[in-house]
């Protein structure tokens, strides 16, 4: 009996070992099958890897390039470097991660001739970050840029630099590119002579020039661009550079018809800036020459500084008031802006704008977008305004606090009435969306 029991135990043990080995074999086979079915990331098509890399931040892109030889090849493909943004800041003044200096050196060394759409984003106000941007600009001697943007999210940045240092770096790009079509250089010490260099080398290709808050540029510098760059389609500048002479020059037959003209009307210190009035005849000549132009005006003024504006008919299409604007000025808008397409009022005060809105609805037959915040309108006047404008109001962004209930409508009722006249469901905004 003992011998039979030992034999049974041995057989059971052997059976268990066999079963365990069989289980391991199946497990290994299953793992091999899974591996066989998994994609081979190293053999992905380069076009797919390229698309993925384009969405990655630069540092992550650099890390990914070390995965395998195929990914490293994609990292150095010219198409990956046509569009690039240099982010610059100082660790001591910003928590944001800047473009790594060693990567910048590698990009300049290997890909400067591939760069076409480039922006420099200075995310702090340090002079060192702006100087770093200029140092990179001055190295782009082998590039052929189509788009250049200098963006400073905190002032003064570029304005803190010695003017000669900035101009020298910018001139390198102007002279070597020869094919710039878009230039955005707000808040920089660019000047008239540097604009002449720009025109001399890129007059056949320049289509967009955006240069608000550039105090060293004069109306003569803008006229130089307008005279020579016949392909110019978009122009953005400060109001102090806008003049009757410039508008008349832009209205001559030798100039192309602008599609977009943006004017920033800005005052930092109330009463310190003198604003001139543009004559109606100058606006008329400009619109006759460019009848489809979008005239965009941003106002950042104090209430007492609006006197020179909207005294005559003004062909503005998009109008933004970034600071408080009086009832009187909004009333004049309704009388003098027949081409108005979009109106945004960020603040007005506690005097209802009922009459002003009704007048705008009566006179501005093209109005299709309205935004109101930190002002007051009675619910009845607002419904009447929407009724007069009808379904052409494609954008209607009104803070709930703007609407004042009256005997006819409550806040609970107004969204049904407005929705009926708009032909779509509408609710007031809890926060401004512009």
Q: What is the arithmetic mean of pLDDT? A: 84
Q: What do we call the CATH topology of the largest domain?
A: Leucine-rich repeat, LRR (right-handed beta-alpha superhelix)
Question: In angstroms, what separates the terminal alpha carbons?
Answer: 93 Å
Give the count of helical stretches.
15
CATH top level label of the largest domain: Alpha Beta
Shape: globular
> Could you tell me the number of beta strands?
14
Total individual domains: 2
Strand content: 15-25%
Q: Share of helix among residues?
A: 40-55%
Strand order of the largest sheet: 1-2-3-4-5-6-7-8-9-10-11-13
Name the CATH superfamily classification of the largest domain.
Ribonuclease Inhibitor
CATH architectural arrangement of the largest domain = Alpha-Beta Horseshoe
Question: What is the radius of gyration?
Answer: 32 Å
> Could you state the order of secondary-structure elements as H and E?
HHHHEHEHEHEHEHEHEHEEHEHEEHEEH
Largest sheet: 12 strands, parallel
As residue ranges, the low-confidence spans are 31-38
Computed structural class: alpha/beta
Main location: cytoplasm
GO cellular component, one term: nucleus
Pfam families: F-box-like
Subcellular location: Cytoplasm; Nucleus
Brief sketch in words of this structure:
Helices cover 41% and strands 16% of the residues.
Provide structural commentary:
With 434 residues, this protein is α/β, with parallel strands linked by helices. The chain has two domains: 44-80, Monooxygenase (Up-down Bundle); 82-422, Ribonuclease Inhibitor (Leucine-rich repeat, LRR (right-handed beta-alpha superhelix)), CATH 3.80.10. Helices cover 41% and strands 16% of the residues. It contains 15 helices and 14 strands. The chain has helices spanning 2-37, 46-54, 58-64, 69-75, 101-111, 127-137, 163-177, 192-202, 219-228, 244-250, 280-289, 327-336, 354-363, 379-389, 411-422, and strands spanning 83-88, 117-122, 147-152, 182-184, 208-210, 234-238, 260-266, 294-300, 318-324, 342-347, 369-372, 377-378, 395-398, 403-404. The strands form two sheets. A twelve-stranded parallel β-sheet has the order 1-2-3-4-5-6-7-8-9-10-11-13. Strands 12-14 form a two-stranded parallel ribbon. Helix 10 (244-250) links the parallel strand 6 (234-238) and strand 7 (260-266). Helix 7 packs parallel to helix 8 and helix 10 runs parallel beside helix 11 (280-289). The chain starts with a helix and ends in a 12-residue tail after the last helix. The relative contact order is 0.04. Mean pLDDT is 84; it is low at 31-38.
């Amino acid at each position: 009996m003992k011998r039979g029991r030992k034999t049974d135990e041995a057989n059971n043990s052997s059976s268990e070992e066999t079963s365990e080995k069989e289980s391991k074999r199946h497990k290994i086979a299953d793992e091999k099958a899974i591996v066989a079915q998994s994609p081979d990331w190293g053999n992905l098509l380069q076009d797919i890897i390229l698309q993925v890399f384009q969405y990655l931040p630069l540092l992550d892109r650099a890390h990914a390039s070390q995965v395998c030889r195929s990914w490293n090849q994609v990292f150095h493909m010219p198409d990956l470097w046509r569009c690039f943004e240099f982010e610059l800041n100082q660790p001591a003044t910003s928590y944001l991660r800047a473009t790594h200096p060693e990567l910048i050196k590698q990009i300049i060394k290997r890909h400067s001739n591939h760069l076409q759409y480039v922006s420099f984003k200075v995310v702090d106000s340090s002079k060192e970050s702006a100087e770093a941007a200029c140092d990179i600009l001055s190295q782009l001697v082998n590039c052929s840029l189509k788009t250049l943007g200098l963006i400073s999210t905190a002032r003064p940045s570029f304005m803190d630099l010695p003017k000669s240092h900035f101009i020298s770096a910018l001139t390198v790009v102007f002279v070597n590119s020869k094919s710039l079509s878009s230039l955005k250089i707000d808040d920089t010490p660019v000047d008239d002579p540097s604009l002449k260099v720009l025109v001399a080398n890129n007059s056949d290709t320049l289509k967009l020039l955006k240069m608000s808050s550039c105090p060293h540029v004069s109306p003569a510098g803008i006229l130089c661009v307008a005279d020579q760059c016949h392909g110019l389609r978009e122009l953005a500048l400060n109001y102090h550079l806008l003049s009757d002479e410039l508008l008349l020059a832009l209205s001559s037959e030798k100039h192309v018809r602008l599609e977009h003209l943006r004017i920033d009307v800005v005052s930092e210190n109330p009463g310190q800036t003198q604003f001139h009035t543009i004559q109606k005849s100058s606006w008329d000549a400009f619109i006759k020459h460019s009848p489809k132009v979008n005239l965009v005006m941003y106002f950042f003024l104090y209430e007492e500084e609006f006197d020179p504006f909207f005294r005559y008919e003004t062909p503005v299409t998009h109008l933004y008031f970034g600071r408080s604007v009086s009832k009187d000025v909004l009333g004049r808008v309704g009388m003098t802006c027949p081409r108005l397409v979009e109106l945004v009022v960020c603040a007005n005060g506690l005097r209802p704008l009922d009459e002003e809105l009704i007048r705008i609805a009566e006179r501005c037959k093209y109005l299709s977008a309205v935004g109101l915040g930190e002002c007051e309108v009675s619910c009845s006047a607002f419904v009447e305004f929407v009724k007069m404008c009808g379904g052409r109001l494609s954008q209607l962004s009104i803070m709930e606090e703007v609407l004042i209930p009256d005997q006819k409508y409550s806040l609970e009722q107004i969204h049904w009435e407005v929705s009926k006249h708009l032909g779509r469901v509408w609710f007031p905004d809890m926060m401004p969306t512009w």
